[in-house]
Specification:
The complex is a heterodimer of chains A (178) and B (132).
Chain A lengths: L3 H5 L4 H30 L3 H27 L19 H28 L3 H30 L6 H8 L12
Helix pairs in contact in A: 2-3, 2-4, 4-5
Chain B lengths: L2 H5 L17 E5 L2 E6 L4 E6 L2 E5 L1 H13 L2 H6 L7 E4 L8 E4 H32 L1
Helix pairs in contact in B: 2-4
The chains are: A mainly alpha (178), B alpha+beta (132).
Family (chain A): Belongs to the ferritin family. Prokaryotic subfamily.
Function (chain A): May alleviate iron toxicity in the presence of oxygen. Iron-storage protein.
Pfam families (chain A): Ferritin
Chain lengths: 178, 132
């Protein structure tokens, strides 16, 4: 008797489902960053608006990477619905706090997927995930550094303006320079 | 089960009747049975006196749809619309209109078939592994 399940796709139903959930999470993150960009724009934080727009594009690119993988493996990639994205934020600082929380949630989610892949012995998907796990180091680093600017520079006087200017300049150095 | 026997259950198998090869029976319950056709990579669901030919995708969609039906809610609701569930999925030309007992029976049948499909997949993997 033929193995119809395996002929259809290399992904198990569980892995296909969690990858589709991750596709949705990336789409929501992209939409959330766009909302943050909009908020920054209308509150005069020009540089941060550009930074969040770029983050939004990156999250969408992550979503498409996952989408392509599921399709390439014979799975059913689902274009996600994104609803009820937050519009207003309490303050300039809270935008960055939320951005960091979002990145932490994404990292945790990828960790759970990697764990699931190991349990299911799906090392092909596990290897595919390595790029995302590495990417999350940078994502969390940048988000955390941006938030730290509020402590380092302070919000008083022209502080917010200085923070806004510094945000897009945060860069993650991948290699150790001794 | 022979094609000649199956053909009496529905018209879907007309195009396959050129052979009398046996179809592997995947799972049988009192309510029906699921067979696999290796020649066409299709599953055949025999349920409530009708035969439905499904691609694997459609079979999985049907299973998901049936699994989503809340049997407790159906049983406890006095609303007449809760007496039956209507199940339609893409890739399946049959519309199931089923009372609670039949939904339960279909759910059990599809779950059993899915389990055997997974078991078959595992066996294939074990056999392949033993060759290495």
């Amino acid at each position: 008797m033929k193995d119809l399940l395996r002929l259809r796709t290399s992904l198990s139903e569980t892995i296909e489902q969690i990858l589709n959930e991750q596709i949705k999470m990336e789409a929501e993150a992209s939409a959330m960053y766009l909302a943050m960009s909009s908020w920054c724009d209308r509150n005069g934080f020009d540089f941060s608006a550009g930074y969040f727009k770029q983050q939004s594009d990156e999250e969408r690119e992550h979503m498409l990477r996952l989408f392509k993988y599921v399709s390439d493996m014979g799975g059913r990639a689902i274009s996600p619905s994104v609803n009820n994205i937050q519009v207003e934020f309490d303050s300039f600082r809270s935008v960055f706090e939320q951005a960091l929380q979002q990145e932490i949630a994404v990292t945790q989610s990828f960790n759970r997927i990697a764990d699931k892949c190991q349990k299911e012995k799906d090392y092909v998907t596990f290897t595919f995930l390595q790029w995302f796990l590495k990417e999350q180091i940078e994502e969390e680093y940048v988000a955390r550094r941006a938030l730290e600017l509020f402590e380092v520079i302070g919000e008083e006087g022209t502080g917010q303006y200085e923070i806004d200017k510094r945000v897009p300049k945060i860069k993650y150095e991948n290699e150790y320079e001794g | 089960m022979h094609y000649q026997q199956i053909s009496s259950l529905g018209s879907h198998l007309f195009y396959m009747m050129h052979t009398a090869a046996q179809l592997p029976e995947i799972y049988t319950s009192e309510a029906g049975a699921v067979y696999q056709c290796d020649r066409h990579n299709r599953l055949m669901l025999s349920f409530a006196g009708e035969l439905t030919v499904l691609k694997l995708d459609a079979f999985l969609r049907l299973k998901r749809s049936v699994d989503k039906i809340d049997l407790d809610a159906m049983a406890s609701s006095p609303d007449r619309s809760s007496d039956f569930s209507i199940i339609t999925v893409c890739g399946c030309d049959r519309c199931f209109v089923l009372p609670l007992t039949e939904v339960y029976a279909l759910k059990e049948l599809l779950s059993g078939a899915k389990f055997v499909l997974e078991l078959n997949s595992m066996l294939h993997e074990c056999l392949n592994a033993s060759l290495v």
